[in-house]
TrEMBL record:
Organism, as annotated: Myotis myotis
Coiled coil segments of this chain: none
Biased composition, class Low complexity, residue ranges: 65-77
UniProtKB keywords: Coiled coil, Cytoplasm, mRNA transport, Nuclear pore complex, Nucleus, Protein transport, Translocation, Transport
Stretches with biased composition (Basic and acidic residues): 331-347
InterPro entries, sorted: GLE1, GLE1-like_sf
Principal location class: cytoplasm
Family: Belongs to the GLE1 family.
GO cellular component: cytoplasm; nuclear pore cytoplasmic filaments
GO molecular function terms listed in the Swiss-Prot or TrEMBL record: inositol hexakisphosphate binding; phospholipid binding; translation initiation factor binding
Gene Ontology terms describing biological process: poly(A)+ mRNA export from nucleus; protein transport
Name of protein: mRNA export factor GLE1
Annotated stretches, region: Disordered: 62-122, 331-373
């Protein structure tokens, strides 16, 4: 078709045109619109172009040839046209194919116009280069002038800075001088003020010294007076003490003589039937001995005896001498009567049966046909021998482990401490909580004594750690049992039974521990023997009081109430031990220290003269704890013993007991009368029943 052929011809013509034959680079396409914008933007001259045209170009045109002048004129006329101002010669050459002066011909070829525009473009490019060079030369000159001006300005500024720095330095020096002058002036003022204050202080100090000397003189005078007064009081106290010591020694001498006279009084008519008047004399002698003992005990608690105490003691001694004189007179009269009666009987027998040989006289009978013997003051020989054997065994045990206790080796000391804790801590843990707990404690003590290792303080302990360990543990264990009676049982009476049952079980398995328990008990409480220590000539008072069981610290004897409380605790523990046995042991053997020893103690204490306040207290404790067991064991004999206490022993206790010490006697009397009335001794409080061992 005709229309289609024309389209193809048009396309062929466009391909053959100048633009159609242009080669395009991909890099220019990637740069984007910035490159195209530079190509189509209108070229502009520099701001210095006018100055160059006015001042540089006229000089340049003068040196050019006529041909060059015409060319430059043409180019100048071209520059004056606002439509064509190339930005640079290179750009003009680069974009020459696209400029308006070189349009492409429809035929696709440059034709004859291309040679016509080549010369103006070259001229234009050289002229642009000259202009651009002039511009750059001007810029260079201008920069050089600016740099020179800047250098001069900098130098001027540096001179000013140096001047200002020198001025500031001078001002700083003047400021430092003024400051130093001010400080110097202030220092001078301060020194003057300090000198003035020092002079005032020295004056005040002198004044205070004078006042101090005056006051010191007054105080020294007062101190001297006080010292004189103190020395006077010390002298008075010394004299009082000396007088008191003299009175005390005199009182002890009186007591010793009184006891000696009392022994003589007891020896009068010994092993003979006594008359009522001689018995009354001996009873009065015992009362006088108790009176002197009470005075000495009160004196030990309060200080030194007074003159009244000494007068009472002297009167008691005089009365004792009179009693002894009367007793001897009664004894002489009785002996004379006996001799006369014997002579009469011999004469009668000689008359009736002269052939019969003479017989020895029979002992006289007292009222009612019964023999009335006097009570003893000393313990029986067999009992005393037993007591001494136990004390000797205790001393031998102490000597056996002396190397362990006296060692300086730290390891041995540690072993000793561990053994002591292992022996004493379980005893301290004995309580009435449960029978199972009591069995654990018993097993621990038994294992320790048997040489087995036990745990104590987180460590394993055994008596085999030291050759003397067993002796040490046995001694400390026995000591702790008695200590518990002295402290724990004294405060809580029910604690006697769990402690006693463990001690009894250990005693049965380890007899030496039982002997040491008795030794410690007899030493701390001699009345548990029973034993009344006698005061010997030359013995110190404190030693005698310790023998009686009193605690003496710093020459001060403990109070009577505390003494009786400790004795009561130990007696209750002893009364519980003799009636209890360990329930898990073998019953084949007899009790190692059973009720027969309790009966022996009761019989011996009733055969001895009572002690004021002590005998009544210990009898009550013993009967309250052990009376029920003795009643079941001895039955009728026990009640005869109770009647003997009521009818014969009570009057003796009451005779030596002062009005202020009747509490223990009244308690014992009421307890015994109630038991006799009911014909029964009640079970002691805290006694361990079968239900306790099942817990």
């Amino acid at each position: 078709m005709p229309s289609e052929s024309r389209c193809w011809e048009t396309l062929q013509a466009l391909r053959s045109s100048d633009k159609g034959r242009l080669c395009y680079h991909r890099d220019w396409l990637l740069r984007g619109e910035d490159v195209l914008e530079e190509c189509v933007s209108t070229p502009q001259l520099s701001s210095y172009a006018g100055w160059v045209v006015d001042h540089v170009l006229p000089h340049t045109q003068e040196n050019l040839s006529p041909s060059e002048t015409s060319t430059s004129s043409r180019s100048t006329s071209g520059l004056d046209q606002p439509s064509f101002v190339p930005k640079s010669p290179i750009r003009s050459l680069a974009f020459s194919p696209a400029s308006p002066r070189t349009p492409a011909t429809p035929g696709g070829t440059k034709g004859k116009r291309e040679p016509q525009h080549t010369e103006p473009m070259l001229l234009q490019s050289s002229r642009g280069i000259e202009v651009e060079g002039c511009i750059r030369m001007y810029e260079l000159v201008h920069r050089m002038k600016g740099a020179e001006g800047l250098r001069l300005w900098q130098e001027e500024q540096e001179r000013k800075v140096r001047a200002l720095s020198e001025m500031a330095s001078e001002q700083l020096k003047r400021f430092d001088e003024r400051k130093e002058l001010k400080h110097h002036k202030e220092f001078q003022d301060l020194r003057e003020m300090m000198e003035k204050s020092s002079r005032e202080a020295l004056g005040q100090q002198e004044k205070l010294k004078a006042e101090h000397r005056h006051r010191a003189k007054i105080l020294n005078l007062k101190l001297w007076e006080a010292e004189q007064q103190r020395l006077k009081q010390v002298e008075q106290e010394r004299l009082r003490r000396e007088e008191g010591q003299v009175r005390l020694r005199s009182l002890y001498a009186l007591q010793e003589e009184l006891l000696h006279l009392n022994q003589q009084l007891d020896s009068v008519g010994q092993h003979r039937d006594l008359k009522v008047d001689l018995l009354a004399l001996r009873s009065r002698g015992n009362q006088l001995c108790g009176l002197i003992s009470g005075i000495i005990r009160t004196t030990s608690e309060n200080g030194f005896p007074t003159a009244e105490d000494q007068a009472v003691a002297e009167s008691a001694l005089q009365e004792m001498r009179d009693l002894l004189t009367d007793a001897r007179a009664c004894e002489d009269k009785r002996r004379q009567d006996e001799e006369e009666a014997q002579a009469k009987r011999q004469e009668a027998q000689t008359q009736q049966r002269p052939e019969v040989s003479k017989e020895c006289p029979a002992p006289s009978q007292g009222p009612g046909g019964t023999r009335s013997e006097d009570l003893q003051v000393k313990v029986q020989d067999s009992t005393m021998q037993w007591y001494q054997q136990l004390q000797e065994a205790s001393r031998q045990c102490v000597l056996a482990f002396e190397g362990l206790t006296s060692s300086k080796d730290s390891q041995v000391k540690k072993i000793k401490m561990d053994l002591q804790k292992a022996a004493t801590i379980p005893v301290s843990q004995i309580s009435t909580i449960a029978g199972s707990k009591l069995k654990e404690i018993f097993d621990k003590i038994h294992n320790l004594l048997s040489g087995k290792p036990v745990q104590s303080g987180g460590r394993s302990v055994s008596v085999t750690l030291n050759p003397q360990g067993l002796d040490f543990v046995q001694y400390k264990l026995a000591e702790k049992f008695v200590k518990q009676g002295e402290e724990e049982v004294a405060s809580h009476h029910e604690a006697a039974f769990p402690i006693a049952v463990v001690a009894s079980g250990i005693w049965e398995l380890h007899p030496r521990v039982g002997d040491l328990i008795l030794a410690h008990l007899h030493k701390n409480c001699p009345y548990s023997v029973p034993f009344y220590p006698a005061f010997r000539e030359g013995m110190a008072l404190e030693d005698y009081q310790r023998m009686l069981g009193y605690q003496v610290k710093d020459s001060k004897v403990e109070q009577q109430d505390n003494f009786l409380k400790r004795m009561s605790g130990m007696m209750r523990l002893y009364a519980a031990i003799i009636q209890l046995r360990w329930p898990y042991g073998t019953r084949q053997e007899v009790h190692p220290h059973g009720l027969n020893h309790g009966w022996r103690w009761l019989a011996q204490i009733l055969n001895m003269e009572p002690l004021s306040d002590v005998t009544a207290t210990l009898l009550f404790d013993f009967l309250e704890v052990c009376g029920n067991a003795l009643m079941k064991q001895y039955q009728a004999q026990f009640w005869k013993m109770m009647l003997l206490i009521k009818e014969d022993y009570f009057p003796r206790i009451e005779a030596i007991t002062s009005s202020g010490q009747m509490g223990s006697f009244i308690r014992l009397k009421q307890f015994l009368e109630k038991c006799l009335q009911r014909k029964e001794i009640p079970v002691p409080k805290g006694f361990l029943t079968s239900s306790f061992w099942r817990s």
